[in-house]
Amino acid sequence: MTGEQTDAADLIDVLNVQPDGERSYVSITRDNAANRHRGVVEGSQMLAQAIVAAGRHAPGRRVVSATMMFARAANTSEPLRIQLDELSGGRNFSTLAPQVQQSGKLCASGIMLLDATAPDVIRHSVAQPDTAGPDASEPFDLAMTGRDVRFVDGAYTRDPNAPIGPPELHAWVRFRAVPEDPAMHAALLAHFTGQVSIAAALRPHAGIGQSLAHRSLSTAINAIHISFHADVRADRWMLYRHHSTFAGDGMTHSECRVFNVEGALLASFSVDAMVRRFSADRTVNDRTSL
Question: Which of 221, 232, 222, 235 is nearest to 63 (CA)?
Fold first, then answer.
């Protein structure tokens, strides 16, 4: 991808929400070059900011489950406010209900479970898929320096005329410099959950590609659910397996996993998204995401 770049340090600044009132956190504003033509905040950014806010609220506990639904588009020119409603707070578990607001309007809401974690009684996990490693995968420029993204078999493309393939994409992702903050590492993993799942859904369909998004196709992430199974190091290679299990009725569903370079399962997530054609009276560069 050519054009104006942003840097991972800018993303980290945006995700690094700061306290501003009781159980309230606020973000700075910084337009992402990849979204500047639309000026719309990615849903996965709001999820990631809520994870950081939860980490600030309950240090020493790990977000083990987070669900967020995106009700209204937020723009990149105004700060976001994350309000945490504590539903319960026990010795091991805490339950939070985050709400993301902009200019007093609700943009996203969800629920999170945090845990102090405990020693294993039992342990098992699914195996990492048998794919090429990061060194043998093809780099792709997603307009962000300081973040390395490589796609197995070079399978990711925005071209509607690219060869069709199965509804899945494998991406290796690594950030080059991340603060020693467990919540930030988890947030950076969560941020990429909204990047590729729609592309995986489009891949089996000839004549349809992500270059059509926000032009002739209206696409957006409606909801993300993520479960964290281990502590995350976002400054080490992570393998995202995006698998679209359904597309139809203007919606897609993907079931995805994230592994570290040693093959351990870090997280599982699912994404519900929409893929719809614009009606004739809609403008080309639509600024709404839902």
Answer: 232
